[in-house]
């Protein structure tokens, strides 16, 4: 390939930021001059033919963000940009990381909500309100003690540092479900409930993930008994939360952020030599160090390049200092090996292949959180030309998620870059369960280090998609094909009957990209049932079409029950499309 000269635009730092192909929000930006310093972290934007093997080789090892077919960005210093230019990558812009963050100061942060029974406990925080990994471990044990009927603390292994006899950390999860005590023998799944696993921070510096997991935990525990959705979820499903999948790396990030600079909006803007940039675990094997640029050289194995399926393939590096170092072998790291074993304990071993797709009766869903780029990613992340045998159903659930956030949705190679050895591929391919990654946020929302005050708004905006995914655990390859009940009301009448009104939308899919969005059918039927759990699909009592004709992908239904006993009742409604697919049940209380 012909070597191209470094093309730095003189006015680059004042150009509009955001790659339009990814739909990034464009924010007001401060004008910061490009710098030649090797201590300032730069957002390096480039143009290159990303299908070229030479380009792929040049970009190997970097954590590439926000790519279209011919453009992308990554973090490094000016020296990184020079190195890439020497390899033929056309650098279109360098701007200091943080220069495209919103200039508007965020409102003062309110503390993260805690489950009510532990709300008077204090938990150590860093960077304006994020809980430390030590605090999360205390929170998890406190919740298990304060909510014995709902929660169980599970230690599933030790981190790399702990396994080496250094201080290190436990790997831990919290099991949350109604009647948890009566079913504490979770290895034998004695309550036979479907399972939803929600995890954050496998990449240590992607700090918003754990905060989302924490907020969801408080949401469902505080909502039980008052919020019909949270109540129905814990009655029907086992929720498993993992606050931090990479605790050694997270502790390293916490230390770094204590001394990191911030922008005027309060977002983190660490210098290049700050350990806040730690992405990987703290396995120092093979790492020689010696760089002042922690964004391009740091210890550790990329835990999301270390899993079994596709290990060693595209988007991974063999250099222990690289961001995407894959490790010496698949599952070489205790964090990934023990989490993979843990998933097998939760879901069993059910390998899928083209000749044996996961059965439609499969139960379970997995959602793990990364940042940033506003993406919903589904398998296979290692190679988007390898099509999972359950692809139609996997896409249905992915685009149902993005209905709530409108993130770009696809296999990793469709929306960003093929990346081999990621957890979602192994969970799907080995355990048969559909697994998803969300990349939360944009560079204008604080990038890797959003001001804590941003987290409440982002969580509230996206929580619907988390609940949808959790609720889909009962039949993840079936119900997402059916319509979503978008509004539901239930009113008690004078004769103690209850009037039900519902609206359902089979087209409740994300639309990015529109040419990949699953197709919708007309909504044709609705039914209700009364009780702690919804009746099985097709076994409820019919509601009537409000306009009498099933000729639209959005329809309204109504009906009136017989007289019901006094006191709180839970009513579930689900709806069906013209292809006969029943969607998930939505719950509502009536008093
Ligand atoms: Zn990540």
TrEMBL record:
Keywords associated with the record: Hydrolase, Metal-binding, Metalloprotease, Protease, Signal, Zinc
Domain Peptidase M14: 129-473
Active site: 439 (proton donor/acceptor)
InterPro entries linked: CARBOXYPEPT_ZN_1 (IPR057246), CARBOXYPEPT_ZN_2 (IPR057247), Peptidase_M14 (IPR000834)
Cofactor(s) required for function per UniProt: Zn(2+)
Signal sequence bounds: 1-27
Coiled coil: none
Biological processes, Gene Ontology terms: proteolysis
Skewed-composition ranges (Low complexity): 284-297
Listed Polar residues bias regions: 260-278, 316-326
UniProt-recorded Gene Ontology molecular function terms: metallocarboxypeptidase activity; zinc ion binding
Any one cellular-component term (Gene Ontology): extracellular space
Region of interest called Disordered, as start-end residue ranges on this chain: 260-334
UniProt record similarity statement: Belongs to the peptidase M14 family.
PANTHER family: PROTEASE FAMILY M14 CARBOXYPEPTIDASE A,B, SLL0236 PROTEIN
Protein name (Swiss-Prot/TrEMBL): Peptidase M14 domain-containing protein
């Amino acid at each position: 390939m012909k070597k191209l000269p470094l093309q730095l635009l003189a006015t680059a730092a004042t150009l509009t930021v955001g790659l339009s192909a990814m739909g990034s929000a464009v924010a007001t930006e401060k004008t910061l001059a490009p710098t030649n310093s090797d201590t300032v972290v730069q957002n390096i934007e480039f143009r290159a033919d990303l299908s070229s093997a030479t380009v792929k080789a040049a970009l190997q090892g970097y954590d590439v963000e926000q790519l279209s077919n011919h453009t992308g960005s990554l973090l490094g210093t000016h020296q990184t940009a020079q190195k890439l230019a020497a390899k033929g990558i056309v650098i279109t812009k360098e701007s200091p990381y943080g220069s495209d963050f919103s200039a508007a100061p965020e409102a003062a942060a309110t503390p993260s909500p805690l489950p009510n029974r532990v709300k008077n406990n204090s938990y150590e925080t860093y960077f304006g309100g994020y809980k430390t990994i030590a605090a999360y471990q205390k929170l998890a044990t406190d919740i298990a003690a304060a909510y014995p009927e709902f929660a169980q603390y599970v230690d599933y292994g030790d981190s790399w540092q702990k396994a080496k006899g250094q201080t290190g950390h436990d790997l831990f999860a919290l099991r949350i479900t109604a009647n948890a005590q009566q079913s504490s023998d979770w290895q034998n799944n004695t309550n036979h409930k479907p399972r939803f696993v929600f995890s954050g921070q496998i990449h240590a510096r992607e700090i918003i993930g754990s905060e989302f997991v924490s907020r969801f935990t408080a949401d469902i525990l505080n909502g039980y008994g008052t919020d019909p959705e949270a109540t129905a979820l814990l009655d029907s499903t086992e929720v498993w939360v993992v606050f931090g999948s990479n605790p050694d790396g997270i502790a390293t990030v916490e230390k770094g952020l204590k001394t990191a600079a911030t922008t005027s909006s309060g977002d983190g803007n660490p210098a290049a030599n700050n350990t806040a940039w730690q992405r990987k675990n703290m396995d120092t094997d093979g790492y020689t160090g010696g760089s002042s640029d922690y964004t391009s050289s740091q210890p550790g194995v990329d835990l999301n390049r270390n899993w079994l399926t596709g290990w060693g393939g595209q988007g991974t590096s063999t250099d222990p200092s690289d961001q995407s170092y894959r490790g010496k072998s698949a599952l070489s790291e205790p964090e990934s090996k023990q989490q993979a074993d843990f998933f097998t304990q939760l879901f069993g071993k059910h390998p899928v292949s083209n000749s044996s797709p996961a059965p439609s009766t499969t139960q379970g869903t997995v959602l793990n959180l990364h940042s940033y780029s506003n993406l919903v990613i589904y398998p296979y992340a290692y190679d988007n030309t390898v099509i999972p045998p359950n692809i139609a159903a996997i896409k249905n659930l992915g685009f149902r998620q993005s209905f709530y956030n409108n993130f770009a949705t696809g296999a990793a190679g469709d929306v960003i870059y093929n990346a081999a050895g990621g957890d979602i591929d192994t969970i799907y391919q080995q355990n048969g369960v559909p697994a998803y990654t969300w990349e939360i946020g944009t560079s204008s929302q604080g990038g890797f280090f959003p001001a804590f005050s941003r987290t409440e708004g982002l969580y509230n905006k996206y929580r619907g998609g988390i609940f949808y995914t959790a609720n889909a655990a009962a039949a993840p390859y079936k119900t997402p094909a059916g319509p979503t009940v978008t509004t539901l009301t239930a009113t008690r009448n004078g004769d103690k009957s209850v009037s039900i009104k519902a609206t359902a939308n089979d087209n409740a899919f994300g639309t990015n990209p529109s040419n990949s969005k699953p197709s919708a059918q007309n909504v044709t039927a609705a039914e209700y049932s009364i009780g702690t759990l919804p009746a099985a699909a097709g076994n409820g009592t019919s509601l009537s079409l409000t306009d009498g004709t099933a000729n639209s992908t959005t329809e309204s239904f109504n009906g009136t029950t017989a007289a019901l006993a006094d006191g709180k009742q839970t009513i579930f409604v689900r709806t069906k499309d013209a292809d006969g697919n029943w969607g998930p049940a939505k719950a509502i209380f009536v008093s």
